[in-house]
Amino acid sequence: MPGVRNRLNDTPVIGAKKVLLAAPRGYCAGVDRAVVAVEKALERYGAPVYVRKQIVHNIHVVATLEKAGAIFVDEVDEVPHGSHVVFSAHGVSPAVVQGAADRQLQAIDATCPLVTKVHREAVRFARDDFEILLIGHEGHEEVEGTAGEAPEHTTLVGSPEEADTIQVRNPDKVVWLSQTTLSVDETMETVRRLRARFPNLQDPPSDDICYATQNRQVAIKKVAKDSDLVIVVGSANSSNSVRLVEVALEYGAKAAYRVDYAHEVKQEWLDGVNTVGVTSGASVPEVLVQELLDDLAGAGYGDIETVQTAEEDLIFSLPKELRQGPTGNTDARAIGGRTRP
Ligand code: SF4
């Protein structure tokens, strides 16, 4: 929908209120697959189905699945022997897989295939005796899972500043890998500083920061430069959502906030604001964005212009444990995750 225009001379109306809606936004293929995996497991095995950690980092999604019969736990030793447990999209270390096997749990691995790719890289570089400089946030589940593939070979680099001080065993045998949901710009700055110290630093075979993270950052950069205010829908523990707020501020938004729900938007944020940029993290269902758009329309921001910087059509097939129907036939819904409206 175009911006508000003067009906007499068809020029943009200065000061008209509008929303710039970033696209792509919201659910990525890995999140969609993980959420469908829990739904499918509930359908097939009945409640309860246990899920280790939040299946994806979004409180609305977790609450919805809880209502449907999922029980979220921190560790597999909280799951009754022999029960079904789903591993979250962020991935798990081999120690967690072993812990589940020790309890005879029926594990369903909903790790995003793009996280699994980074795990495989870690295993391969460790086998070749590289020291892995893993760029990521300490304590994040994905980082714990990846580092857990090769703990003896992995050093965490949490920021560009840390790149200036970390010590390595052999500066000629180092490779960097990263968490999938980081700021692209900040990660490149960290790599630049690492390479200044270790010129023989190897790059990963392909980007570790995933397509969804990158696409959402590119879109919000374009939106931010024309926005007085950016609102990111996403949860506080969602790395890619938090990065979207930072990127929006870096790229020109006068203010940027993250909310889980539309009702968290404060009236004063809109004071003097003509253009509101809107986006959502990769774990956010579109219904939450729609609620925000409805509220903004009620506040006079009913004119919506979509700013599309990429098209996404990636779909991942469901975890192998769920691909076969109960009769042994391939389940029609199990061919892939689905992109939800
Ligand atoms: S954000 Fe990227 S790595 Fe994470 S689940 Fe989505 S596609 Fe996979």
Strand order of the largest sheet: 10-9-11-1-12
Number of strands: 12
How many DSSP H or I helices?
11
Span between termini: 18 Å
Unreliable stretches covering 5 or more consecutive residues: 331-341
* Mass-distribution shape: flat
Helix content: 25-40%
Named once each, the bound ligands are: iron/sulfur cluster
Q: Encode the helix/strand succession as letters.
A: EHEHEEHEHEHEHEHHEHEEHEH
Attribute tags:
341 residues, five-stranded parallel beta sheet, 35% helix, disordered C terminus, binds iron/sulfur cluster
Question: How would you describe this protein?
Answer:
Helix 4 packs parallel to helix 5 and helix 8 runs parallel beside helix 9. With 341 residues, the protein is of the alpha/beta class. The radius of gyration is 22 Å and the shape is flat. The strands form three sheets. Strands 10-9-11-1-12 form a five-stranded parallel sheet, with helices on both faces. A four-stranded parallel sheet has the order 3-2-4-5, sandwiched between helices. The protein is built from eleven helices and twelve strands. Helices cover 35% and strands 17% of the residues. Bound molecules: iron/sulfur cluster. The site of iron/sulfur cluster (SF4) has 15 residues, from helix 1, helix 4 and helix 8.
